[in-house]
Amino acid sequence: MLLVCPSCRTRYVVPDTAIGMDGRQVRCANCKHSWFQDGVIPPIPPAPQAIAPNPPPEQYGSVAVPPVQPAAPDYTRSDETAESQAEPAKDISETFTSPDSVNIESPPQQSHFAHEPPFRPRRNPAKLWTMAAFAFALMIAAGGGAIWYYGVPNIGMDLGMAGAEPDLKIILNENLELNEREDGTPFFIASGSIVNPTGRAQRVPEMLVTLKDSGGRPVYSWKMKAKVRSLAPGAKVDFSEARLDVPQAAAQITVGWVL
């Protein structure tokens, strides 16, 4: 079998058994190009020749036999057969149902021009506004009755809302002034105590610490939380917190409530 490289056209002579009938992948030794070489199709053998059949041997002393004639069928006259098979027809009475006896329901007739409206009427907006006004008046009356019976509740004082200052006293310690650490960093310590002079528990809100200069102008401030959220009657709680890197002009301190 002759193989020709499709790239460099180099020819190779190989045996047919090396490729086989299914073909295989080959590579050119000259240019290293690979391709699939189809297999070798074996030649189709010629068809065998038809052999003529041998003639039958001659029979000696044979006698010719005439063909057998089929017997004539026995036909019967059609008149006799019709008379023997004919039977009188039966009297079949068919029963028909009158269409008047069938009950057919007619579909209900509905006029498109009936007096009934095709949809529900809209609600009267004036009636809805009247009901809303009545409910609002009822709520106002109930609230006024509760205030008259129980008195005005001190909501701002109990919840610590803006503008409601608690009945607590803040007592600052003495000698609160600007100090410096060994490395020269300025710091200020805000310390004191909170006293509840009333006869009921008081909620303790956040405190606002403000540092001022010698002229009374604020130079620094921060918020501070107390150790407790609520203070019992006649109780007292201390607080202390330091801040670093405060302005050198800080000379005074004031502590109030965050309202």
Automatic annotation (TrEMBL):
Record bears the keyword Transmembrane helix: yes
Region annotation Disordered: where it falls in the sequence: 46-119
Keyword line: Membrane, Transmembrane, Transmembrane helix
InterPro entries: Znf/thioredoxin_put (IPR011723)
One matching Pfam family: Zn_ribbon_4
Keyword Transmembrane among UniProt keywords: yes
Transmembrane segments: 128-151
Record domain Zinc finger/thioredoxin putative: where: 1-36
Superkingdom of source: Bacteria
Bias-annotated ranges (Pro residues): 46-58
Ranges annotated as biased composition (Polar residues): 94-112
NCBIfam families xrefs: MJ0042_CXXC (TIGR02098)
Protein name, UniProt field: Thioredoxin
Organism: Sphingorhabdus profundilacus
Lineage: Bacteria, Pseudomonadati, Pseudomonadota, Alphaproteobacteria, Sphingomonadales
